[in-house]
């Protein structure tokens, strides 16, 4: 099992970028400390090639990213000021998801410590997302005929609006999003299947909805691979999530997904997605639980 790891010090970011990125350092450190993984399972991806990115994103937008010519309005929509380091980081993260997807096809499961940048559209970024790593990876696998059908299971509390838009007319990628009905993005795109969640939803109700949906998805789509976005902003401790799912409930969610996929021998590529709890330990613990659940079910 391989894990794409991104050193936040390799390409230093402006100070206002640092706290949101801190979990990407702490997750692998905790997994190593708890002996859930060994150092040899971590790898640092190279930057993705332009050809791979251009299977998903427009040439004009790619040029804006590489030339650092996003307008102030476009930068506000993303939520970060542009910088060469931020762009490079997203390009590396995107390659990480391609790599773990290829690894999953061979070995069953792969993790990206970052990724899940599901608010990026073909021609613009939104919501802290510049490039849509799941979309790029899915299109890469399709283009190279590694797969014929993909399924995106997006359980971040925010709808994967960019992903839904990118695959709206693509029958080879089925998009499923279970998200806060009254949360960002306030204009929702249309996924192949959306389940909007009421504010304050508790763990039992959340898990019951997911338990019903998973077998339907698998039978309907029969995917060659699943891209699983395991956002932990569903937690009751999350500052923006508006749900009441416990840490244990979040882990049970992950176990439910992995068990359903493993039962049908479906490879799974995982990206972490969002998490905005006040205490970073809550974010890191929940993300680490995703790794523990996947490894216990798929094995190393």
TrEMBL record:
SUPFAM superfamilies: Arginase/deacetylase. Keywords: Hydrolase. It holds the Pfam family Hist_deacetyl. The keyword Oxidoreductase does not apply. Residues 23-288 form the Histone deacetylase domain. The keyword Signal does not apply. It comes from the Bacteria. Belongs to the histone deacetylase family. This is Histone deacetylase. It comes from Chitinophaga hostae.
């Amino acid at each position: 099992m391989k894990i794409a790891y991104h050193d936040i010090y390799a390409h230093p970011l402006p100070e206002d970028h640092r706290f949101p990125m801190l979990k990407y350092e702490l997750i692998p450190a905790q997994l190593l400390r708890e002996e859930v993984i060994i150092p040899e399972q971590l790898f640092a991806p190279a930057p993705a090639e332009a050809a791979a990115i251009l299977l998903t994103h427009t040439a004009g937008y790619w040029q804006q990213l590489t030339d650092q010519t996003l307008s102030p309005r476009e930068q506000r929509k993303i939520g970060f000021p542009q910088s060469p380091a931020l762009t490079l980081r997203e390009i590396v993260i995107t390659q990480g998801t391609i790599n773990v997807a290829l690894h999953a096809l061979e070995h069953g499961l792969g993790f990206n410590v970052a990724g899940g940048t599901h608010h990026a559209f073909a021609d613009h970024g939104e919501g802290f997302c510049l490039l849509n790593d799941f979309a790029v990876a899915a299109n890469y696998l399709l283009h190279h005929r590694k797969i014929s059908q993909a399924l995106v299971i997006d359980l971040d509390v925010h709808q994967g609006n960019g992903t839904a838009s990118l695959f709206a007319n693509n029958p080879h990628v089925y998009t499923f999003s279970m998200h806060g009905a009254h949360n960002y993005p306030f204009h929702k795109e249309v996924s192949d299947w959306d389940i909007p969640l009421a504010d304050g939803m508790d763990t039992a109700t959340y898990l019951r909805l997911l338990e019903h949906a998973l077998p339907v998805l698998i039978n309907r789509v029969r995917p060659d691979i699943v891209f699983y976005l395991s956002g932990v902003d569903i937690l009751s401790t999350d500052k923006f999530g508006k749900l009441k799912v416990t840490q244990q409930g979040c882990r049970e969610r992950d176990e439910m997904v992995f068990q359903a996929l493993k039962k049908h021998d479906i490879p799974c590529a995982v990206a972490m997605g969002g998490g905005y709890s006040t205490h970073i330990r809550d974010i890191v613990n929940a993300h680490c639980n995703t790794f523990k659940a996947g490894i216990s079910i798929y094995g190393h």
